[in-house]
Structure to design on (329 residues):
């Protein structure tokens, strides 16, 4: 009798397992991802997705966000967009596509584990990670900054480098965030200019200048100096006390997708705990609050995010670009 009961329970378990796997097995067909993720990260994301949805044939196009968008816009013009899913650097670009009615809302996306304010309220794009911008400094610097305002001090005169928002989407988001959050607004950037700040180059160039001592301070995305410090570079990274800006590498489904079910499954995977654990494995801060932070980062509750409205940033971008140019050009 006991043996029969065990067999019956095992059979029931197999039946339940089969039922549980049916939704994943039912998702099939081709899926095209356009992404600005590094090639290795993109392939890892796809491999993780395919482990859950083996019947989906995924291909991807990878380039920097401006080039990915240029390709996509050319396809829009031709009336033949190829991408099903878009995973790019910033929410402002996604807001532009949302405004143009290019994105498909995914109402059933499960966001119950996430805090309010990091995903699109209409569920047209979703944050996948949090890449913050803070302060990097060379360890030989005498003044150890803890605040954004420290960069306007005499000790930093002619020793600060930062990416230009005229050439970087992340830097534009950072600029809009700071000017909207710091008491001085645009006056803060005017003070930086008076203090000899150099606004040019990408994040990698900022890291090089600070690590070599050419400059002693910089504004930079978090993971670069944290990783280089672990390798022995003479740099420290600071999350300023007022808070930091963040680029969320959002993911979205294009309205023109040829395979909406597979596209929704991709969103489900990226937002799931497993998908977010992959973000940690890749060395980034996952958007999911229950996922640990990479080595070298403080506790999650020690990182304060400044408020950011992607829709307002999109509306203000041209004016912000003009204002920054007037100060630094």
């Amino acid at each position: 009798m006991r043996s029969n009961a065990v067999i019956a329970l095992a059979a029931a378990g197999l039946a339940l397992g089969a039922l549980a796997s049916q939704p994943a097995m039912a998702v099939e067909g081709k899926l095209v991802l356009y992404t600005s993720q590094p090639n290795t990260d993109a392939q890892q994301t796809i491999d993780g997705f395919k482990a859950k949805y083996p019947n989906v044939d995924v291909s991807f196009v990878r380039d920097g966000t401006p080039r990915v968008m240029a390709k996509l816009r050319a396809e829009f013009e031709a009336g033949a967009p190829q991408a099903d899913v878009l995973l790019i650097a910033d929410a402002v670009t996604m807001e532009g596509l949302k405004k143009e009615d290019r994105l498909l809302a995914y109402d059933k996306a499960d966001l119950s584990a996430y805090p309010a304010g990091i995903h699109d309220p209409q569920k047209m794009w979703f944050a996948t990670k949090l890449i913050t911008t803070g302060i990097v400094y060379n360890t030989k610097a005498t003044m150890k900054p803890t605040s954004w305002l420290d960069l306007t001090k005499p000790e930093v005169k002619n020793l600060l480098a930062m990416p230009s928002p005229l050439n970087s989407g992340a830097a534009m988001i950072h600029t809009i965030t700071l000017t909207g959050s710091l008491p001085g607004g645009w006056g803060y950037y005017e003070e930086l200019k008076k203090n000899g700040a150099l606004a040019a180059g990408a994040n990698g160039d900022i890291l090089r200048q600070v690590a070599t001592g050419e400059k002693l301070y910089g504004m930079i995305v978090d993971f670069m100096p944290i990783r280089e410090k672990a390798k022995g570079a003479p740099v420290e990274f600071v999350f300023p006390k007022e808070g930091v800006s963040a680029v969320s590498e959002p993911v979205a489904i294009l309205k023109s997708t040829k395979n909406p079910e597979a596209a929704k499954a991709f969103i489900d995977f990226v937002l799931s705990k497993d998908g977010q654990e992959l973000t940690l494995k890749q060395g980034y801060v996952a958007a999911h609050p229950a996922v640990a932070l990479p080595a070298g980062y403080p506790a999650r509750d020690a990182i304060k995010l400044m408020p950011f409205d992607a829709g307002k940033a999109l509306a203000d971008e041209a004016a912000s670009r003009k204002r920054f140019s007037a100060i630094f050009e």
